[in-house]
Specification:
The chain is α/β, with parallel strands linked by helices and 974 residues long. Among the domains are: 2-102, Sandwich (Immunoglobulin-like), CATH 2.60.40; 113-313, Rossmann fold (3-Layer(aba) Sandwich); 319-398, no CATH class; 407-485, Arc Repressor Mutant, subunit A (Orthogonal Bundle); 567-666, Alpha Horseshoe (Serine Threonine Protein Phosphatase 5, Tetratricopeptide repeat), CATH 1.25.40.10; 871-974, no CATH class. It is built from 42 helices and 22 strands. The radius of gyration is 34 Å and the shape is elongated.
Length: 974
């Protein structure tokens, strides 16, 4: 049970939301009564009766939001609640208990009535998973409009989660961590780190449940550490579950200011959350602000166009708007009596943009200025008639950025050294680092307070341990001033900051995010030679967690650095090349990955580094397997595994995994099963749940291929159960797809389609392109068989395109062949012919294309009028008659070999074999190959269409495949 505010400060007249969490642990329903004890200086924004008389079902939770409006300024104690259940009464005090209320209420938003109405209408009709974007140039008032939207949403009872787009050069999940603090209400300035962690953990228990495995992940993020034992693919799911938890109680609005400054991982995360919210129908939607669409930093290109439901542009204000603004900002001043042209002058200087006007009015009313035009007099303002307004205006810079720079004029001389060092640390900085340069904590605190009053910096964390500059231009201006003061002094300050960073952060102790950020910061400070260990550490962690996109980004940074500062040492160069090879392998750049890995292996060989050589050999085996060179991959993995046995156990295990995959792809399932069974025993003995899932999935695939669907299903369901416990979406969805495959083999197309439909957005969220391409292919097959030809073609093309992007030639050739067959069956003969040529080209690039693949293409070519491939293949040893019509040979490859011979030169023995073999195929996954054999047999024996249909689907079965058969059978029989 908890009662907390969801903001750290507000102003008079602005609503603040407070969250009540109640949990009923009893097995009986509970009814209660709430009484709000407002105290002095608060008003309640009408709470409906159901909120004040909560009813909880057995073992359930309830989250309720209340909105309060402060009526008095200063540090105010928040309202408390008195909860009565039966005869028990309890008073809930808010945590934190106090909040700062600004004395000056915000004036109403001038000149933005139409835009605010659009926001209000959008909030009222919000659609799950959509976003509204407020667009405008710098200083157009985007943030102010978002502030008012937050007030509207709070009054409407929406749950508002707010963040600001920002991030250091390492592109950490900074904006997302802002969202996390907002979700959990981490606003109390708890100096003690353990107290902050305890508070966050208590809130996570409420939001996610006490047993949620992702709790530690979020705690690690808040502490700045890399999450332990978490695959990157799981992150977006965990964020979605966190944000969707509150959406189960009420609509949740994500408000993101300066989206154009947000780090890319955070934007991808928000986009993934919105995608899942739309798919699941959960009321999560977003309101963001960004620069104009023609700005190069516009982030909307990173967000699906169909996600942006509303685009709200902001233009300049009119002279009448500015006149009204001055009157409401300075009540009683009557400045028009002194100079009626002030509003027109402000329009001329600013172009009518609110930011520049606001900064100018702040300068004109700065109390410590001798030439201040506006001076406070109680609750009203007076105009100093002795001030030359035109001269005073002329002394104020023109332009928004220049006005932002003027904030630096308001800081004291003693704050100068601190703001200089802070700017060299970057847009965000830690107070702890400043303490390494200044002995007096009072000196630091006074300077930070001074900088905050001048609106130069603002707190980033509730405990005031980190700050950020309020505008990125301020960092540029301070650094420019340092450079202008003298190059020798600037170089000395940069060395000083770099030395402090190196002293404070050891590369091996840094997290993946902080290591990358530190490395890039050192480059900016002129210490590129010292940056490499940090960037290599960041890359090592990204590769270990299989963060493909992040690893690729860091590798690109290192490559840029190497072009200017070559990596000289052999050990560093080996580490760089081997990590680069692994990053390239993950992103499908297989040619480049092979080249750099071979170079890394040569370095290791010259240095006599046997583990390094073996690691490269294992990676080369993976690259070969991904390129369809299974025999090469097998030989490399086998050599590495044998040499690593008893000496380098991790290398032995990794090589074994590649070897098992190669054995399976080469048809040696027995050896693959032996390796994966050994790995399963080891995983169970070591309580390695991730390893157990992987082995269960792999062994389940072997059972599936052996047509032991019951055993396969048991293994996949076991994998699903473990993956749920680990909160591991990738493993869970992999197993679910195979369960859908089993449903497909058993002819349950609806069940199979549901499984593939669920898998596609999950693999998009996980950015797993290999699994995504397979899911598109699987869904395409189901759509085709159900008669949805256009949808099937679109999914086949998506699957082919993904394989081409990854450089997976073997799978691309398989998918292209199916696409060619589908175009033929749908009557697109020209498209089928063009696709056949592309397939033929893809197969030529494979070292050992399967006979089944070649058979399908030869059969298609014959139907298109070219018997050359068929005649060539009919004489091939792979298609020669082996005289075996046993059940063991009733495989797709066997059926296709017979079909080729029947189409080429039908003989009685082939007809006999065809009739025997086709009756042994009893799974629906082989239906197309049965159709190819049955139609070839019909052409050789003049069987009727109905007889062919019975051979394909059996007696009285296959109704779900009817739409496809109606179009496909006539094509193959023509």
């Amino acid at each position: 049970m908890s009662w907390q505010p969801l903001a750290r400060r507000c102003a008079i007249g602005e609503p603040i939301a407070m969250r009540l969490f109640i949990e009923n642990l009893d097995g009986r329903p509970v009814e209660g009564e709430l009484r709000v004890e407002l105290g002095e200086g608060w008003e309640l924004v009408g709470a409906p009766t159901p909120e004040l008389q909560p009813r909880l079902a057995p073992r359930s939770t309830r989250e309720t939001l209340f909105a309060f409006v402060p009526t008095e300024p200063g540090s105010r104690r928040l309202p408390s609640l008195r909860l009565t259940i039966g005869t028990h009464e309890r008073t809930l005090q808010p945590v934190p208990a106090m909040i700062d209320v600004d004395a000056v209420p915000r004036i109403r938003l001038i000149g933005r009535d139409r835009e605010l109405e659009r926001v209000e209408r959008w909030l009222a009709r919000h659609a799950s998973g959509t976003m509204a974007l407020v667009r405008g140039r710098a200083g157009s008032g985007r943030s102010e409009l978002l502030d008012r939207a937050v007030g509207l949403a709070t009054r409407a009872g929406l749950r508002v989660v707010r963040a600001t787009g920002h991030g250091g050069p390492g592109e950490a999940l900074e904006m997302s961590i802002d969202l996390l603090r907002s979700v959990l209400g981490l606003f109390e300035p708890l100096r003690d780190r353990d107290a902050r962690v305890d508070f966050a953990r208590a809130r996570l228990c409420e939001v996610l449940g006490e047993s949620a495995p992702s709790q530690q992940y979020f705690i690690d993020l808040l502490r700045g550490a890399d999450p332990v034992d978490v695959d990157a693919s799981v992150e977006q799911l965990r964020w979605y579950r966190l944000l969707s938890a509150s959406a189960t109680f009420r609509p949740t609005l994500l408000v993101i200011d300066d989206l154009d400054r947000a780090d890319e991982p955070s934007i991808a995360l928000v986009e993934g959350v919105l995608r899942r919210a739309r798919s699941d129908g959960l009321p999560i939607f977003a309101l963001g602000s960004t620069r104009d669409a023609n700005d190069a930093t516009d982030p909307s290109v990173k967000i699906d166009a169909d996600r942006i439901a509303e685009s709200i542009p902001l233009g300049p204000l009119s002279e009448a708007d500015v006149d009204l603004w001055i009157a409401e900002r300075f009540p009683g001043s009557n400045v028009r009596d002194y100079w009626p042209g002030l509003a027109a002058a402000l329009i001329e200087r600013s172009g009518g943009w609110p930011g520049a006007i606001h900064e100018t009015l702040v300068s004109l009313s700065r109390v410590d200025e001798r030439e201040a035009l506006f001076r406070p007099c109680g609750a009203r303002w007076e105009v100093d008639a002795n001030v030359d307004i035109e001269a005073r205006l002329a002394s104020i810079p023109i332009g928004y950025d220049a006005l932002i720079e003027e904030r630096l004029q308001g800081i004291s001389a003693s704050s100068g050294p601190i703001v200089e060092l802070a700017a060299l640390l970057g847009p965000e900085f830690e107070v702890e680092l400043l303490a390494r340069w200044f002995d007096s904590e009072d000196e630091i605190d006074d300077a930070l307070d001074d900088l905050e009053r001048a609106r130069v910096i603002e707190p980033l964390d509730a405990d005031l341990s980190r700050y950020r500059f309020t505008h990125p231009a301020l960092v540029r201006y301070v650094v420019a001033r340092i450079e202008a003061a003298g190059s020798r002094r600037a170089a000395r300050l940069r060395r000083r900051v770099a030395a402090t960073l190196l002293e404070a952060h050891d590369p091996s102790a840094a997290t993946g995010r902080s290591a990358e950020e530190l490395g890039l910061r050192l480059i900016e400070l002129g210490k590129a030679d010292a940056a490499l260990p940090y960037l290599l550490e960041a890359l090592r962690r990204r590769v270990k967690r299989r963060q493909a996109a992040d690893a690729q980004r860091v590798a690109r940074r290192i490559a840029e650095l190497e072009s200017r500062h070559p990596i000289g040492g052999p050990s560093e160069r080996y580490e760089w090349l081997s990590l680069q090879g692994r990053a390239m392998t993950m992103t499908g750049q297989l040619d480049s990955a092979e080249r750099v890995t071979l170079e890394a292996r040569q370095i290791a060989e010259r240095a006599g580094d046997r583990p390094g050589m073996l690691l490269c050999t294992v990676l080369l085996s993976e690259i070969a397997i991904r390129r369809g060179r299974f025999a090469v991959g097998r030989d490399l993995a086998l050599a590495a595994r044998e040499e690593a046995t008893g000496r380098f156990e991790p290398i032995h295990i990794d090589a074994g995994r590649n070897l098992a995959i190669a054995y399976r792809r080469l048809g040696d399932r027995e050896r693959a099963a032996q390796i994966w069974s050994e790995d399963l025993e080891r995983a169970i003995a070591d309580n390695d749940l991730s390893g157990e899932i992987r082995c269960q999935n792999n062994l389940g695939i072997l059972d599936y291929e052996s047509r032991d669907f019951d055993s396969a299903s048991r293994r996949f369901r076991r994998a699903v159960d473990i993956a749920r416990d680990l909160d591991h979406l990738d493993y869970e969805m992999t197993a679910r797809v195979w369960i859908a495959n089993i449903a497909f083999e058993r002819g349950r197309l609806e069940e199979a389609r549901d499984g593939y439909r669920e898998a596609i957005p999950a693999f998009q969220l996980l950015q797993n392109r290999r699994a995504l391409s397979r899911s598109y292919f699987n869904r395409a097959q189901v759509e085709l068989f159900r008669g949805e030809g256009d949808a099937a073609l679109a999914d086949y093309e998506r699957a082919v395109a993904l394989c081409a992007e990854m450089g997976d030639l073997a799978t691309e050739a398989q998918y292209r062949t199916d696409l060619a067959l589908v175009r033929f069956e749908l009557g697109d003969l020209d498209g089928a012919g063009a696709e056949w040529l592309a397939c033929d080209e893809a197969i030529r690039r494979l070292s050992a294309p399967s006979a089944a693949l070649r058979s399908r293409l030869a059969l298609l070519a014959e139907r298109l009028g070219d018997r050359g491939p068929l005649e060539s293949l009919a004489n091939d040893a792979d298609v020669a008659d082996d005289g075996d019509a046993s059940r063991a040979s009733a495989s797709p490859a066997r059926m296709l070999r017979i079909a080729v011979r029947l189409r080429h030169d039908p003989r009685p023995h082939d007809v006999e074999q065809a009739r025997a073999v086709i009756g042994l195929s009893d799974v629906w996954g082989e239906i197309r190959d049965r159709l190819l054999l049955a139609t070839a047999l019909a052409c050789a024996t003049s069987e009727t269409l109905e007889e062919v249909r019975r051979r394909v689907v059996g007696e009285g079965g296959g109704e779900e495949f009817g739409p496809w058969l109606e179009t496909a059978l006539p094509r193959w029989l023509a």
